[in-house]
Amino acid sequence: MRASLIQIAVDPDESVNARRQRAASLIAGRRGADLVVLPELWPVGAFAYDAFADEAEPLQGPTHDIMAKAAADAGVWLHAGSFVERAADGTLYNTSLVFTPEGERAAAYRKIHRFGFDQGEAVMMGAGEELVTVALPQTTLGLATCYDLRFPEMFRGLVDAGAGTLIVSAGWPERRRAHWTLLAQARAVENQSYVLAVGSAGTHAGVQQAGHSIVVDPWGEVLAEAGADEEVLDVEFDPARVAATREQFPALKDRRLGLAPPRLR
């Protein structure tokens, strides 16, 4: 299976619509790939809180329609990263979209864990309530967004729902890049799954982005890693290795669930 991770740069001098069109052009160049993945909130910037309300869109708005067409034109499964969704009741969400090679929307995932510690995204956006998986012909994707990477129980839930390839779309800051790499490998090892984690380049509202998109196999080996600048990271991987790894080293079978809470002594 061939995947392309588009580590697009966010330039504050580039309009949102211009960046949508540029992203579509980058996707067009990935014809022949099975799966293309974009970062978190690339239309506006993950830390551009002041622009969230002004740039918010309905689920089926400009970003949705341009990405649907881009998927169909390239003939690829497209994880279109995330954008600021405005729901019918006015609530904002950090929402990811997945499209089929025919341009049909296969899934929408609202980010569950909001970053900000009682400010920024954590207070400006609603929290998603549902785990989301997408069945491709070769593998089942489990969807996650940026800060979700720090919550292992979410990924275990995705694996329990059948995911063998975990997608993390992010706008991860450079100052915590070491955590990005470490956590991507940890999620792969503990879940015996592939992790495809794509970040963005450039600067989001003054916050330098880490870049360094990464693909990790079920043993925790790094198959490919990008640099800090805008880049398309292409990688070939074999989804059958997930089942083989779990059979060779069946650690997931030894999970013990439903344990009693600790007692006071």
From TrEMBL:
GO MF annotation terms: hydrolase activity
Entry keywords, A to Z: Hydrolase
Entry-linked Pfam families: CN_hydrolase
InterPro entries given in the database record: C-N_Hydrolase, C-N_Hydrolase_sf, UPF0012_CS
Keyword tRNA processing annotated: no
Ranges of residues in domain CN hydrolase: 1-239
PROSITE patterns: CN_HYDROLASE, UPF0012
Top-level taxon: Bacteria
Family assignment from sequence similarity: Belongs to the carbon-nitrogen hydrolase superfamily. NIT1/NIT2 family.
Protein name: Carbon-nitrogen hydrolase
